[in-house]
Amino acid sequence: MLTGGRLAGGVVFALLGWYIAGIAGPFFPEERPPSYLIPLCTFIGLLVGWSVCGPRTGKGYSNAVSNGLTTIAAFSFCVLGALSFLAMMRSALRNRYDGPMDAIVGMFELMLEQGLAFLDIPFLATMIIGGIVCAVIAEFLGRRFS
Questions:
Q1: Within 10 A of 64 (CB to CB), how many other CB atoms are there?
Q2: pTM for the complete prediction?
Q3: DSSP string of 80-134, one letter each residue
Q4: Of 1, 26, 112, 131, which residue is least crowded by CB atoms under 10 Å?
C-alpha cells in the first residue's frame, strides 16, 4: 500500500544509492566500476527504502536512527549479493566452476572479497551517516504526508 513513509523511504534511499554508486568507483579493480552499477544501486535503494525503511516510519526520530542503520545494512548486503551473483554468472558461463554448488560457494567467496574491498572509513562513514539522514528525512516526510 502506498504511504508517505514508503514513498519517501524509497525516493531518499534511491538517491542515496545513486550517490554511493557514484563514489564507489575507486574500490573496483583498475578503478573501473561496471556500467550497470548506478542503475543497480538506485533500484536496490528504491526497493530497500520502500520495503525496509518505509513501513517503519512514524515511530519517532530516535527509532529513525536504527531504521537508517538497518536499511543501509540491507542495502549493502543486497548490492554486494547482486554484484557477486553477476560476477559468478560471468564466470559460470566461462565454465570456471565444476558444478552448481561450486558456483554458489564461489558467489559467497566473491561477496566476501568485494565486501573487504569496500572497507574504507570515509566510504563507510558516508554510508552510515547517509542512511541515518535518509531515514530521518523519511520519518519527517512520512509524518507530514500520512
A1: 24
A2: 0.91
A3: HHHHHHHHHHHHHHTT-SSSHHHHHHHHHHHHHHHHHHT--HHHHHHHHHHHHHH
A4: 1
